[in-house]
Amino acid sequence: MEKKPRPRAQNMKRKRIILESECETMKMSGIDVKLPPKVKPYPSQKLMMFRILQSLKSCQNAMIESPTGSGKTLGLLSSTCAWLQDYQVQRQQAKTTCPKHGASKQDNHGPLDMEELESSAVVDSDMDFSFNATGMSRIAAEMDDDDDFVVPSPVLKRRSMDTSMISQANLKRAKVEEKEEQECTCLPRVRIYYGTRTHKQIGQVVKEFSRLPYAGVIKHTILASREQSCIHAEVKKSFDVTGTFLAPDGPGCAHKQNIRAAKLDKGPDMRRFIEKNGDSVWDLEDLVDTLSHSKPTICPYFASTRVLTSDADLIFCPFSYLLDPIIRDMSDVFMNKAIVILDEAHNVEDTCREAASFDFTEAEITSAMEELNLKRMILRKAQERVIAHPSSHNSPTKLPETVPEVLDEVERHLAVLTHFVKNLHDWFVSVTSDVVNAPVKFGGRQTKTMSFAALSNSLKDSRWHGLYFKKKENEDQASSDEDQTLHRLHQEISLTHFVKNLHDWFVSVTADVVNAPVKFGGRQTKTMSFAALSNSLKDSRWHGLYFKKKENEDQAGSDEDQTLHRLHQEISKSYNFMCTVDKPGPNGQPLDEIMEKVLSAYKLSGTTIVCMEKFIYFMTYYSRNADGINNMTTYKGFVCIEKEFQSSRTPMRSGGGGKYSATQSIGSQLPWNEFGGTFKEGEEDEGGWKSTRKHEAFKPVKPGHKVTLSLWCMVPALSFKDAFSSCRSVILASGTLTPVDTFESELGMTFKFKMEGNQVIPKEQIFASVVSRGPNGARLCATYKNINENDIFTQELSEIIKSVCETVPKGVLCFFPSYRLLDKVYQYMEQKFILKKMEKIKAILREPRRSSELQEVMDQYERAIENPKLVVGPQGNGALMFAVFRGKVSEGIDFTDDRARCVISVGIPYPNAVDEHVVEKKKYNDDSSKPNSVMPIRTLPGDVWYSTQAYRALNQALGRCLRHRNDWGALVLVDERFVTQSFQGPMVAPHAKISKWVKEQLVIYDEYSDFKMELGEFVERMQNRDRDNKKLEAENKLEDEDNTEWKSFSRKTIPSILIE
């Protein structure tokens, strides 16, 4: 029975998702696939669903390229949901026949209820200090998920998550499931994770899901950040929602507490509540709208990301929740036996490399170091007061008896973290100090690159060599007593020292860059090979945690490996303890309100949390040797020194004393005078570190400059396999995966089932062309040399753009390889008054560099297309958008119909050949592609990788045009490099890795006059078709209205029996 949507509140603007009540069923690969009513799938859509079902049934991976408009999303959802529904029936049958849990083996409590187990309570304030497979605790972290995945805030690449509602039940459930797999014949639970690039795309996918009969039956939820789902009246006004909520003095959330109060902490209960107040199928905006108007109001963030994940079969989320190790570990994401769909996966290689790469700045490390030292100093003052006045009756509040014990626990964990950061600081200094003397390059940059060997050596030489530190020479090495080892840990591997060592390592690696040549933009840089990076790390104090001891070190102690593992866990546990908002008291008992206030005073800031967790995750990746693969060789270090840039919009400033910075006034957070403490500026702690908040204790690598140490992962397979190696199947899908050459080699997985779908739009509606000569006969080749030698190319291109805009109505998109070339052409057209002439027929717009300005530009673009006469003038016919490949316009925006009647692509968008990251990636691929290579994964040569990146970006931009079966448009490729000469005449070059559907219809024009004439004829033909279609639609509508009126009249004047 179809469910009617409830009336919406007055302020509700969006229409709710309506479920389809009927369906079409089609047998495929032995499974009934249900589709929306009256939907007849295209041949390419059928093939796609068949390939997906094959991969799911055989536990294999699939790669699906299906052009936009071919029903890709509906095909992905219908096939996977059909398989899952069929599997769930098999799973229930397997449970019935299971020797352990079947009907014949019921005990007094009956058989195990899997659904009840899977929907167990997920809201639990007690933090569980369990460790995952990597030895890491469930660390508090959350990414700022911007809609378009633009560059996040400078300090918080990954933000801290509130872990107070992370459930022990989820961990217990995972353990129970693992035990059941080993001891019974029940089939394991399978979930579907549908990953997209942006939150906006999730809304579009959920809308398609609602059309299927599986909607409301297959239970779903959406993973999103607080930025998208917070309903706290004050917090959501903040520029930095997550930072505000997680600040040491951040507000609480009554909406979150209502979950337990209303007994909605189980998935089924929450789903019934949502359906009662809204609908069974919803996107994120619907959920926020429903729960913000419900009685009581419920926090959408915790409802969707904590409660509903317990029983969800289908989870929609951005890529970061699946690929980023920090986000994935902190979210209720269970990859074991899961089906993962990565939609719009053409950039998945870059995303994976970024997920396993980490940046450190000198400012964030020193800021973390100062906060830890400052809090330890205040803590010692507090401990002295407690000792002096254990039960002060003069204080406004009597201190609980557990205060000394809890403060000792906090001090112990702070000590571990301080040593950790200290080691990081020392290593940083050692790696960066020599860059000060590097030549200054263009842009004022000094840089150095470290090979994997140099990086490895720097780590070996740093202070954390013996489990983040070198053992003292006079220290007794014979004792294997665990208590003494842990005692030494607490003394020497304090977290304060960790941050200090991190800082020292940073300085050591970056110091020499100061003398490097200044590059363009004032940057000084250096790149470290994997060997150099490895050496810098191995020489650091934390060497022993991840590396074997040096040969001359005492090897006594048979339980060395276990001890190192315990010590690593101790650091992780301390880190986890200090990141937790709600801590358990002694013996696991909940803390009273007073104790919570005491502990909140020592909660770490986001800058410190992120600084430590980044290095912990880096070392986890770096030191892992799985399947015989040495991950150390996949990393390179890069040091860059450049002029400091202060952003006025940064919510958290490293060392700047902002509201959420590490150097904020901690004393002001303390609940009463006994814990307020006092300290003198310049006072030193046990480690010799001053308490000042002005960084006087730290000597900068290069005053007035920003020093950044980047640890680049060269192989995306590290993070891809880390995320998906335990999955049942991984499906990569996009409208433009071509060229697919590098996916298997770069991601380290085999995709047995592949498909390159045909375009469903009729050929008559597509005008695909290559223009190799300009209007004046000049050859067109958009190479750097050709563009900069003279203005011939710019002149010819300007005339082509003007001519196309005069011929093609409505929207025209023109893509350039770089902003530099875009600006050059724009300025030329402006100087020659070409733009002035064009502005009479089209609004001229440029893609902004800042994401925050994009929406305004897009609004102007659409207004000019919808009302050209009003916006442009009497001769107006639309708008022209100048944009760049790989930019904000080239991906994620739907230019349907009039929004893009033509796409002009200028040149071939190869990555910047002088960019240090690109240079190092090409070198790495060249080395790893050799037969005798020592690299862990065999890749394609650097030039092949380089070319693949270019054509993938080109194909993505071309896909902005032609979005559905009735759409039409022109594709104009301006560059002679797409053409090769043969005895039959010009033809598409074999090396041109253009999408199949484009290449099949590509026409090469060696004479511009021929191109101009045929483009005009095509446009005229399409406009005539549109006019005929509109006329036919109007006639049909009028006929339908006449029939309706006749039937209404007939029922009143003619006996019904004559009509029926």
UniProtKB/TrEMBL annotation:
<dbReference type="Pfam" id="PF13307">
    <property type="entry name" value="Helicase_C_2"/>
</dbReference>
<dbReference type="GO" id="GO:0016818">
    <property type="term" value="F:hydrolase activity, acting on acid anhydrides, in phosphorus-containing anhydrides"/>
</dbReference>
<keyword id="KW-0347">Helicase</keyword>
<dbReference type="GO" id="GO:0003677">
    <property type="term" value="F:DNA binding"/>
</dbReference>
<keyword id="KW-0479">Metal-binding</keyword>
<dbReference type="InterPro" id="IPR045028">
    <property type="entry name" value="DinG/Rad3-like"/>
</dbReference>
<dbReference type="InterPro" id="IPR006554">
    <property type="entry name" value="Helicase-like_DEXD_c2"/>
</dbReference>
<keyword id="KW-0547">Nucleotide-binding</keyword>
<keyword id="KW-0413">Isomerase</keyword>
<protein>
    <submittedName>
        <fullName>DNA helicase</fullName>
    </submittedName>
</protein>
<feature type="domain" description="Helicase ATP-binding">
    <location>
        <begin position="31"/>
        <end position="389"/>
    </location>
</feature>
<dbReference type="Pfam" id="PF06733">
    <property type="entry name" value="DEAD_2"/>
</dbReference>
<keyword id="KW-0378">Hydrolase</keyword>
<dbReference type="InterPro" id="IPR027417">
    <property type="entry name" value="P-loop_NTPase"/>
</dbReference>
<dbReference type="InterPro" id="IPR006555">
    <property type="entry name" value="ATP-dep_Helicase_C"/>
</dbReference>
<keyword id="KW-0539">Nucleus</keyword>
<dbReference type="InterPro" id="IPR010614">
    <property type="entry name" value="RAD3-like_helicase_DEAD"/>
</dbReference>
<keyword id="KW-0067">ATP-binding</keyword>
<dbReference type="GO" id="GO:0005634">
    <property type="term" value="C:nucleus"/>
</dbReference>
<dbReference type="GO" id="GO:1990918">
    <property type="term" value="P:double-strand break repair involved in meiotic recombination"/>
</dbReference>
<dbReference type="GO" id="GO:0003678">
    <property type="term" value="F:DNA helicase activity"/>
</dbReference>
<dbReference type="GO" id="GO:0046872">
    <property type="term" value="F:metal ion binding"/>
</dbReference>
<dbReference type="GO" id="GO:0005524">
    <property type="term" value="F:ATP binding"/>
</dbReference>
<dbReference type="GO" id="GO:0006289">
    <property type="term" value="P:nucleotide-excision repair"/>
</dbReference>
<keyword id="KW-0408">Iron</keyword>
<dbReference type="InterPro" id="IPR013020">
    <property type="entry name" value="Rad3/Chl1-like"/>
</dbReference>
<dbReference type="GO" id="GO:0051536">
    <property type="term" value="F:iron-sulfur cluster binding"/>
</dbReference>
<dbReference type="InterPro" id="IPR014013">
    <property type="entry name" value="Helic_SF1/SF2_ATP-bd_DinG/Rad3"/>
</dbReference>
<dbReference type="InterPro" id="IPR002464">
    <property type="entry name" value="DNA/RNA_helicase_DEAH_CS"/>
</dbReference>
<keyword id="KW-0411">Iron-sulfur</keyword>
